[in-house]
Amino acid sequence: MIKKLASYVKEYKKSAIATPIFVILEVVMEVIIPLLMARIIDIGIQNNDIHYILEMGILLIISAILSLTFGMLSGRFAAKASAGYAKNLRKAMFHKIQDYSFENIDKFSTSSLVTRMTTDVTNVQMAFQMIIRILVRGPMLMIFALLMVSSISAKLSLIFLIAIPILGAILFLIATKAHPIFEKVFKKYDKLNRVVQENLNAIRVVKAYVREDTEEKKFKEVNDEVYTNFKRAEKIVAFNSPVMQLTIYTCILFISWIGAKLIVGGDMQTGQLSSIITYAWQILSSLMMISMVFVMVIISQSSAERIVEVIDEEPTIKNPEKPIEEVKDGAISFKDVSFCYSDEKDENKFALEHINLDIKEGETIGIIGGTGSSKSTLVQLIPRLYDATKGEITVGGVNVKDYDIHALRDSVAMVLQKNVLFSGTIAENLRWEKKNADLEELEDVCKLAQADSFIQEFPSKYDTVLDQGGTNVSGGQKQRICIARAILKKPKILILDDSTSAVDTKTDALIRKAFREEIPNTTKIIIAQRVSSIEDADKIIVLNEGKIDGIGTSEELLKTNEIYKEVYESQKKGDDEEDGE
What we know:
Elements: H1 2-6, H2 13-45, H3 50-98, H4 102-108, H5 110-132, H6 134-152, H7 154-201, H8 203-208, H9 212-237, H10 240-264, H11 270-312, E1 332-339, E2 352-359, E3 364-369, H12 375-380, E4 390-395, E5 398-399, H13 405-410, E6 412-415, E7 424-425, H14 426-430, H15 439-448, H16 452-457, E8 465-466, H17 475-488, E9 493-497, H18 505-518, E10 523-527, E11 539-544, E12 547-552, H19 554-560, H20 562-580
Parallel strand pairs: 3-10, 3-11, 6-9, 9-10
Antiparallel strand pairs: 1-2, 1-4, 4-5, 7-8, 11-12
């Protein structure tokens, strides 16, 4: 794990290497300062040698300035290296997520991936910065200071040689107790992010149903869980500080006591004792630094593991060794296809079972069925958003698994149930499928999708800025912009997954007419709840509990399929009652 994470330092290696070098130089200067002070006291002041005092004083000032300079440089390089390292980690995770299949994303959940790319990366960034700076400074300062103390008084250096192992054992115990709790904390963070994300995305629904109290209660529960777990972990980690303080003051007391005896006995000078006390503070402050890094590493270890999980996750859908780069046409065939969302191939858990279906190029196919009949699942297998568990799907006469994924998906335009628009202008959203499309092309596809008329009514027309998620346009307008965006791709297969549900029947009919006349060679698959949206399709597929219950034209299904007949009659009856009113 450490080796993998370290590989993402990449172009910031020079800064990462420069940081400890300048830290060591800073430490050397800091260690020299007490020695110079001791000489000023023991030689200069005691012998009343002004020249010596001035000479040592100048060296002292130079050492202090160099120490400050090296410290500033180490801080600058550490900041650059850690920020760059975090950038590379986020980039690696984001790029890996782009290769994920829907199955991979379902495994982690959106909220968890967001937490890993933000909170977890920040934790690892802080730990990395502390490792290349403080974790170098702490041990080096301790070693150099110990050497200086040993050179002055071997007896006093024994105090530290006893204290350090004891302190190390206590810190190790704290780490082993705290780490499992921090692992739980970050899982709770995922849940907290999910609750916040859902609330913000659905804030209009929350307010419409006056459910603020419920949402606040839900947030309070998960927030309290995070607080409780974090408090437990912090209680354990909090022992670190008093243990350090106890060690520091105990060592200082012993040094002062033994040092005073040595001065009285003539075995030590006053300046030497003052320098030893300064070195003692340096040694003990270095231990404090190491303990701080230790705590941060404990916290970041869980984050590091979660980051590596994302980077190591292998996409369940991959390109074949020699992929086919071009899709010949939009003909589709399902050959005894079954699909299961879970890894367990349990026949009772299949969302789709034994699907056999042939669709010719340019045909318009309607799909209808009750909620949970796996209509969306069926069409998501075509561009390999998921892979079939059993059976084979072909597009243009070729198994979809033999295509280059990008080439396959580029030939399929899909408007999902949840229409997504991004913050930016209408034109920018449309060009998402074709970056260099000119205004005339945008207008043409919007006319096909019956979107041009309302866009022209906006003061800024195609330069109208959309809020995030397209919240400043109606549901029907959003659907038509998404359909236009899909058509601009000039796909061989166009899939509309209940994408005209918010559009009135007249506009729906105009969209279907435009499809027939303007893109006759494109295979069109329309999932709908309204019979009127698919009534004139070349072929209608009735799905029931993941199985095909009937295939045929509307006239044929009215004679042979009870489900279609029931839906048709109930909707037509409703339409007649509305007309009567």
